[in-house]
C-alpha cells in the first residue's frame, strides 16, 4: 500500500478531500427540469408557507412522494438561503454518507481494506457520483436503505453481543422508517423481501429472532406514522392517491408511462457502474461462496442486489434512479473482491478508463449538445488516471490503483455533468425566468399556458397559474380547481380584462400556443424565450 494511505490520519484527510470536493460541485450546474426544479420549488414553497405537513408544488397539493426530501431541502434553504447548491445539499450529504457507511461497514464486517476499496468504488460509480449532484428523491432513499443494510450487516455478525445487536437493529428499523418517508413503501418492502429470500437461501431461520421485531416495529411506527396520520387528517384524499395510485398502480399498471423491457436495468448497469463494470461480475460470483459462521454477509449482499434489480425489472414503472440502492451492496462485494483479486483481474478498471477516454475523445467531433471543453477534460482525466492506475497496479500498489481508478471515474462523471450546463441552462429556462423576476410581486399573476416549466417557478421565486394544462398537477387541481384556468377562452378573458385595466401580468406560453395568441391579437410583449416557451408581458398603459 502506498505510504500516503498507510496511516489513519491520511485516510481521514482523503475523506475530507472527498467531502469538500463533493460539496463544491453542487453549485456547478443549473437545476434541470423536471426533477431538480420540481423538488427545489416544493421545498421553497414549504419554507415560505410554514406548512410542513401538506406538500405542494406550484401552490397545489402534491402527494406523489413523502416529505423527507422536501423537509431537508427546506431546512437547507432556511439555513443557507435559496440557491442551486442548497437545493442539492441533501443529495450531496446523502451521497457522501453512503460512501462513508460503506467504508465503515466494510472494515467492520470484512476487515482489511474491503471497506476502503468499497468506498472508493461506490464514490466513483457513474450513477452514484452523478446522483449525488442531482436534486431528486432516488439517491436519498438509496442512502437510507444503505443505512438499513449496513446496520443489519453489523448487527448480524456472529461476534455481536445482545446489546450491540439490539442497538444496530434499532438503527436498521429507524433507517427503514426514513426510507418510507423518503420514497414510500419500498423502504420496507425491499428489505423485507431481501430478508425472506436470504433466510430461504442460507437456511438461517434464526435471523427473524435476531431482528428485535417488537422494539424495532414500535420505533419504525413512531418515526414514520405521525406524518401519514397528520396529512390524512388534513387531506382525506391523500391515502388513496399515495398508496393506491402511486404504489399499486405504478408497480402493476402502465398508467405512469414509464414502462421498459425486462432487461432495462441490466442494460443500464453498463454505464452506471463505470469504471468498475468488468470487476463486478467476478465480485458477485464470489459472493456465492459460503463462509464460515452462521451469518452469510456476502450472500445477503448478493441477494440484496439481485432481488432489488428483479423487483424493479418486473415493475411496469422503470426509471434509471430506481436501481441506485443496489450500488452500495455491489461496492461492498467489489471491495471484498479487490482485496484478493489477481493482478490481471484488478487491472480491468484502469483498462476500461483508458478505452472510454480514448473512444470519447475520438467521438468528440460528433458531439454537439454539450460543452466540448469540459467533456474533453473528462475523457482526458479518464485516460491519465487509468494509465496511472495501471502503473500503480504493476508496481504492486493495489490501494493506489483503486484510488486512481476511482479518481478517474469521479472526474469523468463530474466533467461530463458540467459539460451539459449550456443545454441545461436553456432547458431550465433560467435566463428567461431571471429576465422578469425583479418585476414580480407576490400578487402579480403569472400564467403558464399549455405547459408547466418545472425549474422556471423556482428561478422566478413565484408560482404560476396553469392554463389549459394539468399534467402531474392533475390530482391537485381536482382538489383545488380554482388554482388553474381550464380553457384558453377563460384565459383570454382574464388577460384582456387585466390588460384593459393596466394591471401587470405575465405568461409563460408554449410556442405553438404563442402563435395562436398572436393570431387572436392578444395584447402582449415578448420578453424572453426558453426551451420551447415564450415569456410575454401585458403592455402597460
Model description:
The structure is a single chain. This protein is mainly alpha-helical. 64% of the residues lie in helices and 5% in strands. A hairpin with a 3-residue loop joins strand 6 and strand 7. Helix 8 runs parallel beside helix 10.
In short:
With 541 residues, the protein is mainly α. It is built from 25 helices and seven strands.
Distance between the termini: 75 Å
Spans of at least 5 consecutive residues whose pLDDT stays below 50 are none
- As a whole number of angstroms, the C-alpha radius of gyration is 25 Å
| Shape by Cα distribution | globular
Mean pLDDT: 94
Helix/strand structural class: mainly alpha
Helix content: 55-70%
In percent terms, what proportion of residues is strand? under 5%
Helices and strands in order:
Elements: H1 8-24, H2 35-49, E1 56-57, E2 60-61, H3 68-80, H4 84-110, H5 114-124, H6 126-131, H7 138-155, H8 162-182, H9 186-202, H10 213-234, H11 238-252, H12 264-272, H13 280-286, H14 297-314, H15 326-340, H16 343-346, H17 348-362, H18 372-394, H19 398-419, H20 421-428, H21 430-437, E3 446-449, H22 454-460, E4 465-467, H23 474-479, H24 488-501, E5 506-510, H25 511-519, E6 525-529, E7 533-537
Parallel strand pairs: 3-4, 3-5
Antiparallel strand pairs: 1-2, 5-7, 6-7
Amino acid at each position: 500500500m502506498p505510504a500516503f494511505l498507510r496511516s489513519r490520519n491520511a485516510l481521514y484527510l482523503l475523506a475530507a478531500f472527498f467531502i469538500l470536493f463533493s460539496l463544491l460541485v453542487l453549485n456547478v450546474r443549473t437545476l434541470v427540469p423536471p426533477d431538480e426544479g420540481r423538488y427545489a420549488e416544493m421545498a421553497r414553497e414549504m419554507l415560505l408557507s410554514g406548512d410542513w405537513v401538506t406538500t405542494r408544488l406550484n401552490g397545489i397539493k402534491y402527494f406523489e412522494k413523502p416529505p423527507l426530501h422536501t423537509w431537508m431541502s427546506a431546512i437547507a434553504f432556511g439555513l443557507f438561503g435559496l440557491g442551486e447548491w442548497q437545493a442539492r445539499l441533501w443529495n450531496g450529504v446523502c451521497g457522501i454518507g453512503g460512501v462513508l457507511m460503506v467504508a465503515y461497514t466494510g472494515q467492520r464486517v470484512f476487515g482489511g481494506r474491503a471497506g476502503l476499496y468499497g468506498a472508493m468504488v461506490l464514490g466513483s460509480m457513474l450513477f452514484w457520483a452523478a446522483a449525488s449532484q442531482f436534486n431528486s428523491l432516488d439517491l436519498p432513499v438509496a442512502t437510507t436503505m444503505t443505512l438499513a443494510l449496513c446496520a443489519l450487516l453489523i448487527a448480524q455478525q456472529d461476534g455481536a453481543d445482545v446489546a450491540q445487536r439490539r442497538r444496530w437493529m434499532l438503527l436498521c428499523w429507524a433507517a427503514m422508517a426514513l426510507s418510507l418517508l423518503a420514497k414510500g413503501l419500498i423502504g420496507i418492502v425491499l428489505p423485507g423481501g431481501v430478508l425472506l429470500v436470504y433466510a430461504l437461501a442460507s437456511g438461517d431461520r434464526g435471523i427473524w429472532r435476531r431482528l428485535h421485531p417488537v422494539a424495532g416495529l414500535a420505533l419504525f411506527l413512531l418515526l414514520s406514522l405521525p406524518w401519514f396520520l397528520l396529512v390524512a387528517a388534513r387531506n382525506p384524499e391523500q391515502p388513496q392517491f399515495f398508496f393506491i395510485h402511486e404504489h399499486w398502480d405504478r408497480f402493476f399498471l402502465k398508467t405512469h408511462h414509464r414502462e421498459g423491457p425486462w432487461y432495462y436495468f441490466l442494460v443500464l448497469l453498463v454505464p452506471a457502474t463505470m469504471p468498475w463494470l468488468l470487476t463486478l461480475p467476478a465480485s458477485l460470483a464470489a459472493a456465492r461462496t459460503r463462509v464460515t459462521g452462521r451469518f452469510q454477509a456476502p450472500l445477503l449482499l448478493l441477494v440484496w442486489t439481485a432481488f432489488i434489480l428483479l423487483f424493479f425489472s418486473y415493475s411496469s414503472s422503470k426509471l434509471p434512479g430506481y436501481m441506485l440502492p443496489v450500488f452500495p451492496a455491489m461496492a461492498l462485494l467489489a471491495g471484498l473482491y479487490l482485496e484478493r483479486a489477481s493482478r490481471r483481474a484488478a487491472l480491468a478498471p484502469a483498462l476500461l478508463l483508458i478505452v472510454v477516454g480514448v473512444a470519447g475523445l475520438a467521438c468528440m467531433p460528433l458531439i454537439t449538445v454539450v460543452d466540448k471543453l469540459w467533456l474533453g477534460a473528462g475523457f482526458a482525466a479518464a485516460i491519465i488516471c487509468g494509465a496511472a492506475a495501471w502503473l500503480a497496479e504493476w508496481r504492486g500498489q493495489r490501494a493506489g490503483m483503486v484510488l486512481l481508478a476511482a479518481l478517474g471515474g469521479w472526474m469523468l462523471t463530474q466533467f461530463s455533468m458540467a459539460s451539459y450546463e449550456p443545454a441545461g441552462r436553456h432547458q431550465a429556462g433560467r435566463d428567461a425566468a431571471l429576465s422578469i423576476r425583479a418585476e414580480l410581486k407576490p400578487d402579480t399573476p403569472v400564467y403558464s399556458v399549455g405547459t408547466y416549466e418545472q425549474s422556471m417557478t423556482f428561478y422566478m421565486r413565484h408560482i404560476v397559474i396553469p392554463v389549459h394544462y394539468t399534467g402531474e398537477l392533475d390530482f391537485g387541481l381536482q382538489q383545488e380547481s380554482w388554482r388553474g384556468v381550464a380553457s384558453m377562452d377563460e384565459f383570454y378573458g382574464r388577460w384582456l380584462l387585466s390588460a384593459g385595466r393596466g394591471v401587470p401580468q405575465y405568461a409563460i406560453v408554449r410556442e405553438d400556443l404563442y402563435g395562436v395568441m398572436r393570431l387572436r391579437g392578444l395584447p402582449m410583449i415578448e420578453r424572453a424565450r426558453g426551451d420551447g416557451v415564450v415569456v410575454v408581458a401585458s403592455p402597460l398603459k
